[in-house]
Amino acid sequence: MPNYNHEVTIIGGGPAGSVTAIKLSELGFDVCLIEKKKFPRETLCGEFLSKEVILNLKQLGLYDEFISLNPNPINRFRLINNDGKEISTKLNFTAFGLRRSVFDNFLISAAIRKGIKVIQPAEVKMIKREEDVFALYVKDNNAKEVIVKSKYVIAAYGKHNILDKSLKRNFANIKSSLNGVKFHFDSMLLNEFKKEEISIYLGNGIYCGVNAVDADKVTICFLEKRKNKEITSRENLLKFISGNEKFNKIFKPGYKELIMSNPVWGTGDIFFGKRKAVEKGIFMIGDAAGVIAPITGDGMGMAFQSANIISQVLFDARCCNISTPHAEEIYQIRWDSLFKSRLQSSHIIQSVIMRNYGRILSMNFLCKFPQILPYFVSITRG
Fold it and tell me: What φ, ψ does residue 161 adopt, rounded to 5°?
């Protein structure tokens, strides 16, 4: 069985993993990146890139190449309840919409150009730790097995992974009944659609974000509380659209057939509770460390920011001869400092709007005091 040795191994080649690989490589680390899917590929995401993402792309010297992908600029936010009440605000920054298949491929390609070792497609099946060395047992799509040994392991594999159970993480066996689902529509199939705006439509036990992305595509991404397992996610979305007059108005005739036939990407039993940022010596980043409620639209920003934290922690550990246990403590403290209150705020907002009574009261309050909305946007940004 072939062996590879690297100073750092990152599991997951999405935004958190690829950006961390690039940053560590620029700091002089020998990095290996393992990704189980072949790119380009789609994955569940609202595809909203906030100011934190754009700032990091500029710092990495990737902004001009990013703009060449023709992402859609977004500068407004609108919230619409199923009783017709709505409120909107101008964002104090310019965000962008871009399909994950395009964005992720762009980032991992940049990592490859930096000379980073990328093993793809391949999946980490098991991790063993002996003293200060991790051994990752990896199998590629041809069933070829390799062992990758590293001093540091960073998990950037998203919301769920088979490794969560082997690591005995606190949420690994929890059934939350919260499902996330994403569709792509051609923008020409929608009416009265404002490309510069991200809109969130609210209903009882469900909410749906709509925003334009590249190539005249629109992302329709929703979170649902699955109470009736006999109704599929597609059927639940159709029921939601028909019951929300303003949501229904943006669709042209024939949308039902499109929803029933369009490709769909989803994730079940999404856990929004507390996760540890370090598990058995493995540094967790992005969604692996904590999933922010999608209504706040900051998951991608958190992925980039957590890449910044772990890169600096490992660089400081090497330069200042900090022990690995101490580096783990520092990372957890810095992660909590930046993300803990943000996650708590977003989860409270989500729990309120997922309930009928709380959502109605909240929308009445926001419509009466619209100046409050920018504040709620700001507390979820960090």
Answer: -160, 155
CA 232 from centroid of its chain's CA atoms: 23
- b/e for 319-338, b at 16 or more Cβ within 10 A? eeebeeeebbebbbebbeee
Residue 316 in any domain: the answer is yes
Residue 248 corresponds to which tokens in the numbers above?
């229904």
Inside any domain, residue 361: no
Q: What is the pLDDT of residues 246-287, one digit of tens each?
A: 999 999 988 899 899 888 999 889 998 899 999 999 999 999
The answer to whether position 136 is within a domain reads yes
Cis preceding linkage at 40, omega within 30: yes
Quote the CA–CA distance of 271 and 176 in Å, as a whole number: 6
Neighbours of 280 (CB within 10 A): 14
8-state DSSP, 195? T
Instruction: Give the C-alpha separation, 283 to 270, whole Å.
Output: 20
**Contact yes or no for 58/64 (Cβ under 8 A):** no
β strands within 233-281, DSSP E: 265-267, 278-279
Rounded to whole angstroms, the Cα distance separating 291 from 141 reads: 28
DSSP SS3 for 5: strand
Total-model pTM: 0.93
Q: At what angle do helices 15-26 and 100-113 cross, to 10 degrees?
A: 20
CATH number of the structural domain spanning residue 35: 3.50.50.60
Q: Positive or negative, the Cα torsion across 11, 14, 18, 20?
A: negative
The β-bridge partners of 4 are: 148
Domain assignment of residue 93, yes or no: no
pLDDT digits (tens, 9 = 90+) for 353-368: 888 888 888 888 888 8
Cα gap 99→108, rounded to integer Å:
14
Domain span at 167: 3-70+99-174+270-352
What's the rounded Cα separation, in Å, for the pair 7 and 310?
A: 14
Report the C-alpha gap between 133 and 151 in whole angstroms: 5
Characterise 57 by phi-psi region: left (phi > 0), alpha (psi -120 to 50), beta (else): alpha
Packed helices 324-353 and 356-368: angle between N→C axes, nearest 10 degrees? 90
CA–CA distance, 330 with 135 (Å, rounded to integer): 24
